[in-house]
Amino acid sequence: MFAVIRSRPSRAAESSEAVEEVSSEHLPLPELALRLHFAELSLDEELELLRRQSPQLAEWLDLLAADKAEEALSRAEAEHDTNPRSRVAARFLMRAHLSVGDNAGAAKVAQAYFKAVGASDCHAVLQAWHHLRAMNVLPGPETAKEVLGVVVEANLSGKNGPGIPTTLVATRDGWSMLHRGRLMVPATPDTRPEVEAAAKALVEEAAKVELPAPSARRSKRVRKGFKLRFTFLTPGGPSVLEADIRELSDNAFLPLSMPFLRATELVSMKSRAS
């Protein structure tokens, strides 16, 4: 069963920290965190997020604020030319082209970035395609259908308590993240080789499923109980399928049975590590 190993309160469960941890387990992720996982940040939101992590990008943005746009663009273009894998350079230049209505220029920068990263950094690739679709720049038919990631959501029943919103994210290059409510499980990035292999296996099975046409991500939470929601992340946009956990457990021949099994294995690995 797609279950989560719940944290066991210690004898100090009465402490405020323990109470806060238990309550966090039942709180849904904030909308911004969900859009981050679903690769649906706006370009400005992504730049702000990257700015906190990249002194180089912060420097370029500071130059813009100081009315030194030409110098900022020159530095970003030089970085993009020498290192087309640079996410910060690609996003900065895409934003620069977009600011003057040059969608074709933004798409050209993105295509150079896609070519450079290849099959790696799938989540960043999905985020870039989200920006391009917002500019009405769409992928070709085959590219649009590639499953680069999957998000699995459930609202598992807590023992004599409220549901536990559970969110599992995995991408084709082996990155993954599990949230039990607002708690990340485990609490630090999980780069174990067996976990990366399990994430790849989940997305590989997800790619075999016949998908409906892309649609807007469903913002309504999965209701408490046995419902399971799969959102397949593709360059063409998210595709959503839902199923009953009990049916998937009992019938190995349903379309979502193998992705469900792989998701269960990945959740189990991450939960044991916590």
SSE map:
Elements: H1 16-24, H2 31-37, H3 43-53, H4 55-65, H5 69-82, H6 87-99, H7 103-117, H8 122-134, H9 141-144, E1 149-157, E2 163-171, E3 176-180, E4 183-184, H10 193-206, E5 227-234, E6 237-244, H11 245-250, H12 257-273
Would you kindly provide a written description of the structure presented here, covering whatever features stand out?
It is a single chain. The protein is of the alpha+beta class and 274 residues long. The protein folds into 2 domains: 37-137, no CATH class; 145-273, no CATH class. It contains 12 helices and 6 strands. The chain has helices at residues 16-24, 31-37, 43-53, 55-65, 69-82, 87-99, 103-117, 122-134, 141-144, 193-206, 245-250, 257-273; strands spanning 149-157, 163-171, 176-180, 183-184, 227-234, 237-244. A 6-stranded antiparallel beta sheet has the order 4-3-2-1-5-6. A hairpin with a 5-residue loop joins strand 1 and strand 2 (163-171). The longest helix has 17 residues, at 257-273. The two termini are 19 Å apart. Residues 1-22 have low confidence and may be disordered.
